Amino acid sequence: MKTLHLLASLAIIGCTMVAWFILGMALTTRTSSSSDTMTREVSGVWNPALEQLHPEAWFDTPNAPGGRAVLLPSSSSVAVDLTFVPKKRGLFWHPTYDVGFKADYVFTNPTRIPQTVYVSFPLPANAQGLERFEFRLGEADGGGRSPTTGPDMATQAVVLPASASVTLHAGYQTRGTGSWIYRFNNNQRIAGFSLKMKTDFAEINYPVGTGSPKDGDRKLVGNSWSLAWNYPDVLAAKSIGMEMPKLLNAGPVASRIAFYAPVSLLFFVTIVMLIGALKGAPLHPMHVFFVCAGFFSFHLLFAYLVDLLPLLASFAIATVTSLVLVCGYLRAVGGRTLFRVAVPAQVAYLVLFSLSFFFDGLTGITLTVCAVATLALLMMLTAKVDWRAWSAKVKTGGDDGPPPLPGVMRG
Description:
alpha+beta; single chain; Immunoglobulin-like; seven-stranded mixed sheet; 2 domains; elongated
């Protein structure tokens, strides 16, 4: 290939990169705007991420700072049941869930005289629609007093004899989005605490700042986890939580694929141009232009089909369209020689490379494998090329490509 043709081809690829960047930015902006709006709407219907605070009690006494002595449960038994029920709103799937919460907390009067103890149970912030709500102290009548329920707290007073205990039975069912967390205030010393959690999903992830259960307290049965956290006597106990499984949304996937598309095009064009030159079918810059357009058609179609069709169906249609355009065109340009090269190269560099964006953590290794495999192929194909002779011919305006390898016939 002549130097001028090479520079023209690089310029065409550069212009295509700019087009991909513009497409990626447009997709990112559209996705971000739509995602923010839909997230607020879903949170308004399904509640936001929920946090359940550890309850406490207190009694009035002049011997405590501020005239109030705070009591933490002497023992706690909590059961949480998380059910993943993702909801689609607009173009996005949102990680919504149902949660069933039940707990028994034992509060003990630490003094040698009877005390009027106020037991409080914090309600999840910004949570609406608490169903089957239960707040019961000891017997059903709660000592004849009714609990006071506010927007974020349920409180009830009970008279406890010296060293006596009372059990708070609390529970509810509600729904949230994203994550559920059980949080301890400040650096409280937590004793006799046990929380058992069941999930109906196998992909588990603990939110930042929370603790994970010990290996012996985790059990996977089918696609459900049975988890347990036990704090017999812990200072500054870590919070407990669970994030919902990650969902595959079309907008973020399409924008990431568009931003990385120049990498796959560079690999593809390099292989096709080099093999075409070795086989006596060098590509003209106009050929490169139409190949770039065929590659770009995949990302353009995919970006806008996902608004109308499911993600995989959109990917399949865009893939077939681009393969027909690019490989069919190269067959017309260079016959079966380029066609046999173009089909596996486009499947590897466009289809499989783009599919890696559907799975978190695979993009980097896929890019590395493609780069190493391409380098190995180029080294193998050009090992016996006489580059000095080829450079001399380019300077004198001779042959359009490097000399063919031994045994390789032109045409």
